[in-house]
Design brief:
The structure holds three protein chains of three kinds.
Chain A: H1 2-12, H2 32-43, H3 45-67, H4 99-135, H5 137-152, H6 155-166, H7 170-196, H8 200-207, H9 212-249, H10 260-271, H11 277-304
Chain B: H1 2-5, H2 9-20, H3 30-34, E1 38-43, H4 62-68, E2 73-79, E3 85-94, E4 97-102, E5 108-113, H5 127-139, H6 143-150, E6 159-163, E7 166-170, H7 178-181, H8 192-197, H9 207-212, E8 220-226, E9 230-235, E10 249-254, H10 258-267, E11 272-274, H11 278-284, E12 289-294, E13 300-304, H12 314-323, H13 326-334, E14 339-340, H14 363-372, E15 379-386, H15 390-405, E16 409-416, H16 418-427, E17 433-436, H17 445-452, H18 467-477, H19 486-500, E18 503-508, E19 510-515, E20 522-523
Parallel strand pairs in B: 1-10, 1-11, 3-20, 15-16, 15-17
Antiparallel strand pairs in B: 2-3, 4-5, 5-7, 6-7, 8-9, 9-10, 11-19, 12-19, 13-17, 13-18, 14-18
Helix pairs in contact in B: 12-14, 13-15, 17-18, 18-19
Chain C: H1 2-32, H2 37-42, H3 48-58, H4 64-76, H5 90-125, H6 130-144, H7 147-161, H8 186-193, H9 196-233, H10 236-243, H11 248-285, H12 291-300, H13 304-332
């Protein structure tokens, strides 16, 4: 019965959109990729802005600790909970620490957490998903069930469980965030690969003697990249938010390490009492960072998408 | 689930209508809620059982035992330091017992019960009920049994119902703690007839039934309990344990977010916000009525575990004691609520407890001691705090981390989740350097020493061991406080532990309560809200 | 039709190993949690003996495999065990709390879809225009804020400062009584009862938390709609359709949107399960008596039965949802094989 169904499905399936696979046209003097990049940035100022903001973030992450006006850990019992002023741009917290310095210094840790977690889940997820989608059969079934099992967990609670069980260190927060994101990539890649594994261009590549790994890596996988870029951009933000949520529950980065999520979580308790700056500035930084990641993701999509490269 | 936790609308309204007398059959009872007959209180804690004797019952649930059940005796009332009223450890007053007498050797107590006392089903309270309830408390194991033992009650044979209104307790040893231990929430009197009807062979103490139902003779009964949301108390008009409560109905809402609680009390949508953070208490004080009562016999301490090599060196312990920025901690972590416990006289002059330690922040002295010690170059250590208590532990730990860093002690702060905190800190006692907040229910120094400075005892998380302190504690524990030997022994104990410093006292914390449109608040050592005296007018 | 029925059965059969996996992992994970429940539940002032008594009472003195077998046996009888911290059967607890979470999540998702899908389509039809940019900015800002922060902000503005929303105290203000239980969804139950006063009361309580969650879910839905629409619009069959002179409305909704639905539905499923988990934080801020806040409390006190029961019921929900998505896939995209995998 299944066979009939599947053959019906296959024959009735319209041919997958014909592959306009990366054949960069050298119509411009510059090399294709760079030219395309400049073209996209010029066409889309918001993306350009995102790249600039990303640059600023990277600078803050690398040089932050050397350029901030105060030691982000130094307490000062004489200036506790000061509103923003000329000497403390973002005010001070309940221990008299300078919020601006803490926000800037936190950039590095937050970038590390999100990028590491997303990179980890991207690699593992797309590897698993690509194999499952391409090989089909038992590999697909097994991997799919394993992924389903992970995904069947309420994700945030799974992350909480992992951190609670392993202890709340930065590495464990990264692992927890990575684990809960793996199935997202794996499923996405699997779906994309599954659609294309019997497509004309795949068969053509096979007939011309390409190995499976090569076909997967160079012919099918690039097609899965655009939707994955959207996912990556969203996930970079989610990774930070996830860490922030863990902090809110009390399972975050260890104090006194400055980290945006913890600062927002702790600052949230001060909003009703009028000390809005404690949560607002790290919150804004968080928002700007996620915004940057998202806008970049969009931009990347335009750059990577083979369809728009012609 | 029973009728109690999920009453149908009709049941609930019927009950409300009977109690309120003139309540019209309305779909909402907003008119009632807004009236002076109902108070709404909020608290961040959640009630997880209506039965204190049950395994796993949390602290917040003790309020049920306090408000819905009676004990034989209770503590008196006095004016509290931080405003409002407080229980008075020095006077014992009748609750269900009309009178009591001690035998000449102090080994037998005879209680006469009030003849008018009735349970909430209208049946008379008899000595048999008292016996059944006490038997239950010493038999079920866990916390109730341990607390009963503190007063010298451990076996069912000690309790005898002589006749309907006479009840005796035989003690193995005369102790000053016995009578006060009958006034704590644990030995509450249960309607044994109803309980037995709902007991089974597997469950002889009717744990399942009492978990969901209040069958006491107390001032209030729980008419509705939505776990995790609210408890509704309705007054028992026939209560004889004390003056009739002014408020007919009290709704206890559970609000986990402190910010939300603050907004609610500030806007007057609720009348009582119980156990609010020190910061909110400090800032709300000029807007609504705030009572911050220093908690008797409770000390927030910095503990130095003797398992950890450097902390065996007395100079290291003193160096830490002189390095701690007490004043900054008191301001940042307690917002000045509670009482300072530093900068006191070099020797104890009386038996007041908690008392100021002789130490104060003095970096020069700290460095001096450190240089003299076996660890002049300092060392690395983890300072452990509990996530559940991070509102005061975290700022405290951060300030200590910074301060002891200046004498070469490199501190990493470790946050331990609430579930493992008890195991790590109190049971395994494996935390080298940590914060702790023990408070004794029975308000005598010897009781504090018994738990916090005796080897192997639960709250001695520093693994402190000193033969002289052991001996003095055992000698004073049951000794009457007016015994001429008592005061010198206690002062000696205090001097020893302040010299040895297994626990560095930081401050005495306060219990904060904000009232907006309510009065009659009374502080209790058990740190639960006593709704029996609450009024709907500001006091 | 029969073939489709068989395929549904196959999928259900496939769910069994997943559920078993969830049972095993949740069992192991809860046991790996630090902290000793016996110590936790023996209460303050516990002595070593009372802790040991508690351990026996909780059945934690038995070897791990035996505990697992006992647990499995109970599961087959539909018994999720007794939550030690609330002292009630986990099944009862979940049954009373799940509707609260579902009502909140579904309201938020519906609200979110109503806003996000049109936004996404709008943005995709005018890629690069200022409308597109503004859509992007708006939805991205929503997803960029932690939900607990948004929640507290909304409470501060609409309750504390302006006083136009009711006190953030759970599902119903205390002046109302719960509507008679039909579905557990207060909005539906009150409507069935014809009690519009309570209905409005429940709605008022629902608005702020639902908006908080919806703000957070706008982005994935809007962005996936936009991306999928763009991809569909630039595909060859649309070009062909355009070349064939079909009306733009027909192209947009008849062809492009239908094809774009596939990733949107996937995203919706993911967002749903993500949000049910992420509810935790919003529930905490709004004192919402849902399943998420229950799970967090249980996790913190190592209440094994409660955590496992929560995870298992969520897994059931998820598997069911997945089945729906799979079926939707095969309905929307005929290319996608429905054969037993």
């Amino acid at each position: 019965m299944n066979k009939i169904l599947s053959s019906v499905a296959k024959t009735s399936a319209p041919e997958a959109p014909s592959p306009t696979i990366a054949i960069p046209t050298k119509s411009k003097a510059k090399s294709g990729a760079l030219g395309h990049l400049i073209y996209v940035l010029r066409e889309n100022p918001v993306t350009a802005l995102a790249f600039i903001m990303f640059g600023v973030m990277v600078i803050a992450a690398v040089f932050g600790p050397y350029i901030v006006p105060y030691d982000p850990l130094a307490t000062d019992s004489d200036s506790v909970l000061q509103p923003p002023s000329f000497s403390h741009w973002f005010g001070t917290d309940n221990l008299g620490r300078d919020v601006f310095s803490r926000v800037v210094v936190a950039t590095r840790l937050d970038l590390v957490i999100s990028v590491a977690a997303v990179a980890l889940s991207f690699m593992i997820g797309s590897f698993l998903g690509a194999i499952a989608g391409y090989r089909g059969g038992w590999t697909d079934i097994t991997l799919n069930r394993v992924l389903d099992t992970i995904m069947a967990f309420p994700l945030f609670v799974l992350a909480m469980g992992v951190v609670a069980a392993l202890g709340n260190s930065i590495a464990n927060i990264i692992y927890a965030t990575a684990i809960i994101n793996i199935p997202f990539y794996a499923r996405l890649v699997r779906a994309e690969v599954n659609i294309r594994r019997n497509a004309g261009f795949t068969l053509a590549a096979k007939l011309s003697g390409n190995s499976d790994a090569r076909i997967l890596a160079f012919h099918i996988f690039p097609n899965a990249l655009p939707p994955m870029m959207v996912q990556v951009s969203l996930n970079l933000g989610w990774a930070i938010l996830n860490a922030a949520g863990l902090s809110f529950i009390g399972l975050g980065v260890r104090p006194p390490t400055p980290e945006w999520g913890i600062m927002v979580a702790e600052g949230a308790n001060f909003i009703v009492s009028g000390e809005w700056w404690l949560a607002l500035f790290p919150g804004l930084s968080l928002m700007v960072a996620v915004l940057t990641f998202n806008l970049m993701g969009d931009g990347l999509r335009d750059i990577v998408d083979p369809r728009r490269r012609t | 689930m029973g009728v109690l936790t999920m009453p149908t609308r009709r049941d609930f309204l019927k009950a409300g209508a009977v109690l309120a007398g003139t309540l019209p059959f309305a779909r909402t009872f907003s008119a009632l809620a807004a009236g002076s007959d109902t108070l709404v209180a909020v608290s961040g804690q959640t009630v997880n059982s209506l039965d204190l004797h049950r395994t796993g019952t949390n602290r917040a649930s003790y309020q049920i035992a306090v408000n819905c059940y009676d004990r034989l005796v209770s503590f008196g009332t006095k004016q509290a330091e931080g405003g409002g009223l407080s229980y008075d450890y020095s006077t014992i007053v009748p609750e269900l017992a009309e009178s009591w007498t001690f035998s000449d050797d102090g080994m037998k107590i005879t209680f006469k019960l009030k003849s008018g006392a009735v349970f909430n089903d209208g049946s008379k309270v008899t000595a048999a009920d008292v016996k059944w309830s006490f038997d239950r408390a010493v038999s079920v194991g866990g916390f109730p049994t341990v607390q009963m033992k503190a007063g010298g009650f451990s076996r069912t044979e000690q309790f005898v119902a002589v006749d309907d209104e006479t009840f005796t307790i035989t003690l193995d040893q005369a102790s000053k703690l016995s009578l006060p231990d009958l006034a704590v929430p644990v030995p509450f009197i249960i309607n044994s007839k109803v309980a037995k009807e709902n007991a089974t062979t597997d469950d002889p103490w009717a744990m399942e039934y009492l978990h969901l139902n209040t069958i006491g003779s107390g001032a209030y009964s729980v008419t509705r309990w939505d776990a995790g949301q609210q408890v509704v108390f309705e007054r028992n008009d026939k209560w004889v344990g004390g003056p009739t409560p002014p408020v007919r109905r009290v709704i206890m809402r559970e609000v986990p977010s402190a910010a939300t609680s603050r907004a609610l009390i500030e806007r007057g949508d609720v009348q009582v916000a119980f156990d609010i953070p020190d910061k909110d208490a400090a800032e709300l004080a000029d807007k609504v009525t705030v009572h911050s009562t220093p908690i008797e016999n409770c000390i927030h301490s910095l503990c130095l575990n003797s398992k950890f090599e450097p902390f065996r060196d007395p100079d290291v312990r003193k160096a830490v004691a002189y390095a701690v920025p007490y004043d900054a901690i008191f301001k940042a972590a307690a917002y000045g609520r509670g009482a300072p416990l530093w900068g006191g006289a070099p020797k104890a002059e009386d038996i007041a407890w908690p008392r100021k330690s002789p130490y104060d922040t003095d970096m020069d002295k700290a460095k001096e001691h450190m240089a003299k010690s076996g660890f002049p170059d300092g060392f690395e250590i983890k300072l452990s705090i509990s996530t559940g208590l991070s509102h005061w532990m975290e700022p405290t730990a951060l300030l200590i981390q910074e301060a002891v860093g200046k004498i070469g002690i490199k501190v990493e702060i470790e946050k331990i989740p609430g579930a493992s905190w008890r195991t790590a800190a109190l049971v395994e006692k494996r935390l080298d350097f940590h914060l702790e907040n023990f408070g004794g229910w029975l308000n005598t120094p010897d009781y504090y020493f018994f738990w916090a400075y005796q080897e192997g005892h639960l709250f001695n998380s520093s693994n402190y061991s000193n033969p002289e302190v052991e001996q003095l504690t055992n000698e004073t524990l049951h000794m009457p406080m007016d015994d001429p030997e008592y005061a010198p022994k206690i002062m000696r104990m205090i001097d020893i532990v302040y010299e040895d410093l297994p626990r560095i006292p930081l401050w005495q914390p306060a219990l904060n309560v904000a009232l907006n449109g309510a009065g009659g608040y009374k502080f209790w050592f058990h740190r639960q809200l006593d709704i029996r005296g609450l009024t709907s007018v500001e006091s | 039709m029969a073939a489709r029925g068989t395929s549904v059965l196959t999928r259900i059969a496939q769910a069994i190993p997943v559920l078993f996996g969830v049972i095993v992992i949740s069992f192991v994970l809860t046991r790996a949690l630090p902290g000793d429940p016996a110590v936790q539940f023996a209460g303050i002032m516990a002595t070593p003996e009372t802790i040991e008594e508690t351990r026996v009472k909780l059945g934690l003195d038995k070897p791990m495999p035996e505990q697992f077998v006992i647990y499995l046996g109970q599961l087959f009888q539909g018994d999720l065990g007794q939550s030690v911290s609330t002292g009630r059967p986990v099944v009862t607890e979940l049954a009373s709390r799940l509707p609260a979470s579902l009502e909140l999540t579904l309201s938020a998702l519906i609200l979110s879809c109503v806003v996000a899908v049109p936004l996404g389509v709008l943005a995709a039809t005018r890629p690069g225009s200022w409308i597109d940019q503004i859509c992007r900015l708006l939805v991205t800002m929503g997803v960029s804020l932690p939900t607990f922060f948004t929640g507290v902000m909304l409470i501060y503005i609409f309750y504390y400062l302006l006083g136009i929303s009711p006190s953030p105290l759970g599902r119903l203000d205390f002046v109302y009584l719960d509507p008679p239980h039909v579905t557990g969804f207060f909005l539906i139950d009150a409507a069935v009862d014809g009690d519009w006063e309570t209905w409005f009361g429940a709605l008022k309580q629902l608005v702020l938390p639902a908006v908080t969650l919806a703000l957070f879910t706008l982005a994935p839905i809007a962005r996936m709609t936009r991306a999928a629409m763009l991809s569909a619009l630039s595909s060859d069959y649309i070009r062909t359709a355009r070349a064939a002179g079909l009306g733009s409305g027909r192209i947009l909704y008849g062809y492009a949107f239908r094809n774009a639905l596939l990733p949107v539905v996937t995203t919706l499923g993911m967002v749903f399960s993500f949000v049910l988990g992420a509810n935790v934080l919003v529930e905490k801020v709004f004192a919402w008596p849902g399943i998420g806040s229950y799970a967090v409390e249980a996790l913190i006190v190592s209440d094994y039965a409660a955590v496992q029961g929560f995870v298992l019921s969520m897994a059931f929900l998820f598997v069911f949802l997945n089945l729906l998505i799979d079926l939707a896939y095969s309905l929307i995209d005929p290319r996608f094989g429905t054969s037993g995998k």
